[in-house]
Amino acid sequence: MLVQKFGGTSVGDPDAVRRLIEIARATRNRDGRGPIVVVSALSGVTDALLAIAAEAGASRVDRALAHVDQLRDRHVAMTQALLGDGRMAPLAAHVESEFDQLAAVVKALGVLREVSPGTLDVVAATGELLSSRIVADALVHAGLPGQWVDARLAIITSDDYTRAVPLMRETTAALRAVVSPVIDAGRIPVLGGFVGATLQGHTATLGRGGSDYSAAIVGAGVGASEIQIWTDVDGMLTADPRIIPQPRLVPRLSFAEAAELAYFGAKVLHPSTIHPAVERNIPVRILNARKPDGTGTLITADAVSSDANQLTAMAAKRDITVVDITSDRMLMAYGFLRRVFEVFERFQTAVDVVTTSEVSVSVTVDNRRHLDAIVEALSEFAEVVVEPEMALLCVVGDCLRSDPAMAGRVVGVLEEVPLRMISQAASRRNITVIMRQADLSHAMHRLHEEFFT
Ligand code: ADP
Ligand code: ASP
Ligand code: MG
Fold first, then answer.
1. Which residues surround ligand 2 with Cβ inside 6 Å?
2. Which protein residues have their CB within 5 A of the ion that is ligand 3?
3. Is 407 left (phi over 0), alpha (psi -120 to 50) or beta?
């Protein structure tokens, strides 16, 4: 059984949905059953919904309602284009009622003047709940047995709203209860990605880009043979195509390489996607929905990049903050790092890269929410310097393990770029460097020229 996830641009307009339908049809003709389809919201809709919630919370209710109507029009137009006027009645009524509910939430937020994370998730989830209904009906209209499955009944999560994590035992049981019967009945389950619900049944989302994660959770839960991520690029590329105009396709990746690339900024795959796949050893394939015959990128446990002497790819994150923490008093003393990391833990802020010397430690964070409080707490026992507007560039390749000279070559290519931190961890699968954001594009071009062309 295949799980096929389609991202925002791959359901963004009627033609995109028609392509999705043909991809699902071809899969079904080949496999004789399935696939399980997971969809994102139509492109741009999650951003629009979050903006609506923010406007409503700031009491700009009229503006928010005008934006709700724009979204309503877009979804109604999509429904009409895919199903025609005659057959769309039940779906159109459903779309209208979802937007009526959203409008009611907006008005309530305008009065409350406060948007809780739980309410934000209710608003954000609307995008996927609608797109999945539309796709399910469009499949049926195209002669395929699509059946909508409410993701809130299938993915059971923690109550960390806006970044909930799946409770795998409960989710596996839920998937057996609500998805397996649909498959057994010979139908095509269609679920909204990104969305789940807590044990109490409250809507929760898995965090931005989380539809990939949903696909992997579903794939692991039903024991899929492959999890396919259909998107708008040919697969994992050697670099972010928005920075490097002509990156190459990476045909094969190991789970470990993919995890590092995703975590360090390759947006094409949500970083958590790999975990459920690793646990059940299910291959993940990234494919271009506009080129269904492409081979894409295949990610498996043991895959090695085509040329073992080559670096595999690089990824970058902008808007990184470096925090330098120095204390002379800590010279030769133990417990310094523990105190430092306790502070980050207390404020639930993940640290990405760490470098240390005897009296100082530098760390990077990309979530600045609690930064002021963190600096204050650290200042009780150390001198703290914060440097914003930094970027993280991560070069990944299993060859970094086998060829000791490779790390030196990477840093050597960047000789004109002032590097703030350099790090290579025990996996020796990546080298991560931190620089000013202004230098990132130049650094990526240099590395790409040297290692990927
Ligand atoms: P979807 O809506 O299908 O989930 P995303 O926008 O989340 O798509 O991810 C696909 C985008 O990721 C591509 O359009 C591309 O701009 C970006 N991207 C960044 N780094 C990479 C990379 N190394 N390889 C491929 N795509 C990348
Ligand atoms: N629609 C959600 C987002 O834009 C989830 C996803 O597309 O993966 O973040
Ligand atoms: Mg995505």
1. 7-8, 40-41, 46, 127, 193-194, 208-212
2. 7, 209
3. alpha
Given a contact cutoff of 8 angstroms between Cβ atoms, the answer to whether 239 and 287 are in contact is: no
- Cα dihedral angle (199, 202, 207, 210), rounded to 10 degrees? 70
Ligand closest to the CA atom of residue 210? 2
Q: Give backbone dihedrals phi and psi of 21, rounded to 5 degrees, phi first.
A: -60, -40
pTM: 0.94
Ligand 2, residue 127: give the atom nearest the CA.
1
Other Cβ atoms less than 10 A from the Cβ of 358: the count is: 10
Cis peptide before 35 (omega within 30 of 0): yes
Rounded to the nearest 5 degrees, what angle is found at the Cα of 271, between the Cα atoms of 393 and 165? 140
Protein residue with its CA nearest to atom 11 in ligand 1:
268
Please name the residue ranges forming H helices in 32-116: 45-57, 61-87, 89-112
The mean per-residue pLDDT over the stretch 155-176 comes to: 97
Tell whether ligand 1 has an atom less than 6 A from the beta carbon of residue 294: no
78-97 pLDDT tens trace: 999 999 876 667 898 999 99
